[in-house]
């Protein structure tokens, strides 16, 4: 596998473009796509959109940004589905960047992007939660995967109109298959989508698989460096960081410290925002308990502690006091009647902890309650 494909460097071959497609044209996807599209350097970015497809096709993406001012991003192409993109003019997608919500209990997005993936494709996952990479690794065992974690405040205020409020940070790291595994503890599976796959024996590592992992990490790290260069040198985003596989997973778990505490609690508290929750003494104590549980468990699960520069639970709570008016995404989904990202933010971490002999009791309680609430509401809808 030493000959594993590497994407061309921008400008190194004027006759060979770098072709990028974003799967998911929400606020995060459109913002980062707009900073990566540079035809003058032969980097061409296309979008796969759903509800806002018509608006993007007709007018492009209108961005109102705190960092770069107002501008319009006109992608190389806009497609209504991955299948349509696979039948378009581009025959080789160098980067397939997935920025959709991760809902493995609804569908297997690794199957969704299958028409786009070829031997030379690098899959980039910019999604919340932990364990999001595993379905892609299972389906595409020889393709490099880059895992991404964002720190950004952005929203789609109307179809095709994106507002970036604060921050642009993006952490990138390669992924082999060693950072986490959740499927062997999942209790259900439909056998067709692969979304929540049935338990299967863990294979014994051999020299071939270890060699492949080393190659995937090496090539994945090269892709991280190239993407970081594109976004920094051409897109003027100056807080792109590249980390090792395990360090990137620690960053995922650190973001989970925030998401797994605030998101579920906002729904269960009756719709309170972040600042309102931390100002309530009992809710603040509850939030701290969830965050501390993750803070203590992650090093046991990943084998390494959080870096000293990452903010701890108390510092996060203190800074949240100023976040007036902010509603977590899970609350927005609940209020809109949409599915919540329960599995990647709560279910996967709980299962992964159990697999490693670490019980996440507070998170398990949040998961059980919200999973039930969602099922009851969907059952009521089905009876209408």
Automatic annotation (TrEMBL):
Biased composition (Polar residues): 177-186
Keywords: NADP, Oxidoreductase
Domain Ketopantoate reductase N-terminal: 21-176
Signal peptide (UniProt feature, chain positions): none
Disordered: annotated span: 174-212
Transmembrane segments: none
Residues covered by the Ketopantoate reductase C-terminal domain: 247-374
Protein name, as recorded: 2-dehydropantoate 2-reductase
Domain of life: Eukaryota
Protein family: Belongs to the ketopantoate reductase family.
């Amino acid at each position: 596998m030493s000959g594993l494909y590497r994407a061309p460097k921008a400008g190194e071959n004027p006759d060979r473009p770098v072709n990028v497609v974003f799967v998911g044209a929400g606020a995060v996807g459109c913002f980062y796509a707009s900073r990566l599209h540079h035809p003058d350097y032969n980097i061409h970015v296309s979008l796969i959109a759903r509800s806002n497809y018509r608006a993007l096709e007709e007018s492009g993406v209108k961005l109102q940004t705190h960092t770069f001012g107002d501008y319009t991003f006109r992608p190389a192409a806009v497609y209504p589905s991955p299948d349509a993109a696979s039948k378009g003019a581009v025959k080789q997608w160098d980067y397939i960047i997935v920025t959709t919500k991760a809902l493995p209990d609804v569908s297997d997005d690794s199957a969704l992007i299958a028409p786009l993936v070829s031997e030379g494709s690098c899959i980039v996952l910019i999604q919340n939660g932990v364990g999001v990479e595993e379905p892609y690794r299972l389906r595409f065992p020889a393709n490099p995967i880059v895992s991404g974690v964002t720190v950004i405040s952005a929203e789609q205020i109307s179809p095709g109109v994106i507002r970036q409020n604060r921050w642009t940070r993006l952490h990138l790291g390669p992924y082999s298959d060693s950072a986490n595994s959740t499927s062997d503890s999942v209790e259900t599976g439909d056998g067709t989508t692969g979304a929540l796959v049935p338990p299967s024996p863990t294979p014994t590592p051999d020299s071939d698989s270890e060699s492949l992992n080393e190659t995937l990490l090496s090539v994945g790290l090269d892709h991280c460096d190239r993407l970081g260069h594109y976004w920094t040198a051409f897109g003027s985003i100056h807080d792109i960081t590249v980390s090792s596989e395990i360090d990137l997973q620690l960053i995922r778990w650190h973001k989970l410290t925030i998401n797994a505490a605030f998101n579920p609690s906002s729904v269960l508290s009756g719709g309170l925002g972040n600042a309102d929750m931390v100002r309530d003494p009992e809710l603040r104590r509850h939030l701290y308990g969830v965050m501390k549980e993750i803070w203590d468990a992650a090093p046991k699960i990943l084998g390494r502690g959080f870096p000293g520069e990452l903010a701890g639970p108390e510092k996060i709570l203190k800074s949240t006091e100023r976040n007036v008016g902010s509603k977590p995404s899970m609350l927005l989904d609940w209020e809109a009647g949409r599915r919540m990202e329960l599995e990647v933010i709560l279910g996967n971490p709980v299962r992964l902890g159990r697999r490693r002999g670490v019980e996440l009791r507070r998170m398990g309680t949040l998961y059980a309650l919200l999973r039930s609430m969602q099922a009851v509401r969907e059952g009521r809808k089905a009876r209408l």
